[in-house]
Amino acid sequence: xxxKRRVLTLVFALLALQLxxxxxxxxxxGCGAMVTDRxxxxxxxRETSVVRxxxxxxxxxxxxxxxxxxxxxAWIMPVPTRATVELADGAMFGDxxxxxxxxxxxxxxxxxxxxxxxxxxxxxxxxxxxxPTAGAPGVGVVGREQLGDFDVARLTATDPDALxxxxxxxxxxxxxxxxAEVRPYVDQKWEYVAVRLAPRERGKVLRGTLDPLKxxxxxxxxxxxxxxxxxxxxxxxxxxxxxxxxxxxxxxxIGGGAPVVTFAGTVQPPASLAGLTAGRPAxxxxxxxxFPEPGRIDGxxxxxxxxxxxxxxxxxxxxxxxxxxxxxxxxxxxVGGALAAVAGAVAAVVVAMRRRARRHREPLTAE
Length: 367
Fold this sequence. Notes:
The chain is of the alpha+beta class. It is built from 6 helices and 22 strands. The protein has helices spanning about 1-25, 90-100, 160-170, 180-185, 275, 330-360; strands spanning about 30, 30-35, 40-55, 55-70, 75-80, 85, 105-110, 140-145, 150-155, 190-195, 210, 215-220, 225, 235-245, 250, 260-265, 280-290, 300-305, 310-315, 315-320, 325, 330. Strands 3, 4, 6, 11, 12, 14, 16, 17 and 19 form a 9-stranded mixed beta sheet that branches. Strands 1-2-5-10-9-8 form a 6-stranded antiparallel beta sheet. The longest helix is centred in the last third of the chain and has 32 residues, at about 330-360.
């Protein structure tokens, strides 16, 4: 009985640990810092972004899936030049998923496996906001818009502590490392997009998939800001769709796992992407990357054209038993035919042996 109690205690402890990991606050996401007050929890379960670069300007459409009990939060994204911000069409993510969907093929196997007759039961079933306060010293507010549930401020900063002051003036307790992490952007004279995620419905918490935002700015090179993700306390996952004239790739892994291309090819963008591509065909590269240790991130993603515009689509194989006609397994016919042939050969040998034995038993007659 005592042993049983110990086992149950261990199980409940493991469950509590797993639940805790699901609702732990994520203070950074794939391209910026996500912050909330310490009394609330906000986890970024998934971030997916679309990058469009035409050689002179860049557009980034971002969508977060969040969970927790925070009624409000803030998110910061550094940008190399003055940016514009607007709501984007969320349908583009479904369209991109369709465009990059893996090709499905069937591979047949000869011998039966688990789940096939005679190893199965024979049924054939498979497995189944309040407005922000005035800018703090060192912060210039160059624009502010209310976009749905987002209060967007576009900022300049001349002091690495300026963003901390501005955000704390809006009621947020920030990670201690934030001022240090934005120092490289201050030195490069980058600007910032600060977004307050504050549902207009009183008492509503931030949960589920948020409306996507489109951030556009001039850039002579495609860049995806990632440095602030160093502050994340949990592993990070990045899904990136890149629309350009050629197949694109990150210059380096910037401290994460090797970037994996899951799709590459020229596409005719659907209506949801027309605003990004002006309705013209574009080369689409889909990239996935994992960051198991965010603290190792050492810079921003700089994207470059790959050596060749090699097209690629993942292939997912479905394995099926080789059959003919109304689902008769080929192995059964083959084995049955072989057994029949063997039986026939054995029968022929037996008949021949009996005839030979009969001839030996026949008496010899005198002439």
